[in-house]
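Feature request, filed as a ticket because there's no other form

It would be nice if the structure record came with a short human-readable summary line next to the tokens. Right now we just get the raw output. Example of a typical job, pasted below so the devs can see what we mean:
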Amino acid sequence: MDTDFDLDSYFARIGYSGSRDVSLNTLNQIMAAQTQTIPFENLDILLGRPIALDLPAITQKLVTDRRGGYCFEQNGLLLAVLQALGFDAVAISARARWMRTRADTAPRTHCFVRVDLAGEAWLADVGIGGVSLTSALRLAAPGEQDTPHDKRRIVAEGSRFFHQVRLGSEWSDVSEFTLEEMPLIDREIANWFTSTHPQSHFKHRLMAARAAPAGARLALLNDELTIRAADGHTEREKLRSPDELLEALARHFGLHFSPDTRFGSNGAAWPV
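Raw output as currently delivered:
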């Protein structure tokens, strides 16, 4: 725990003024607030900027500079907040499986936070893009669990666990894990791969996502903006220029860049 961590600035950033006691209610309210105000995004990678995981760097970027980040930054920040509040919380390694088939062996380059409360273990993951959790999941519960934005479940298959989300009538894998802890050194190595390796999908796709009130979600992939309501109704908008992209990042995700900013993603229909 970093005793110098500025909780007041973090809570101001996410617009949270609720309880700070060690409880499930506090955990869930913090998760809901962070996912709605600090967007998931990989824009620094596309701009050729390094991703630093030490707490001062994460705090500067996500809190002070009002940017977003991806799993190691988002869940690293949540972990620091929970530990500063007195929660029993650790980082757990995982494989991101969203939009992948079981035939793919995804790299172990994801992490989430395990929280132990009153003898029960909970999964908190605010850093997995458009399916980031807005409340915690019971790790030991075998059935369907409600969250403010969708239904989830944890499925055990031998020594492996799968976090799944139900969209419509279909269950899809979100992540796979074995409950092995992921200390900072392991997160730094995985972060180096995801942010610099030529084959990392973060190097080739522009991504931004955040949860919204009333169960809605917003997501941006390259030049396509998607707004999905709680009832599943989805609207998609093609962005026609870099200027429209910058406007969408500012309006929907609170991410502001200079007018001449151009990202390195090659998935857009127009030059970037």
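Something like this underneath would help us a lot:
The first helix runs from residue 7 to 14.
The helical segments are 7-14, 24-37, 43-46, 55-64, 71-85, 184-196, 242-253.
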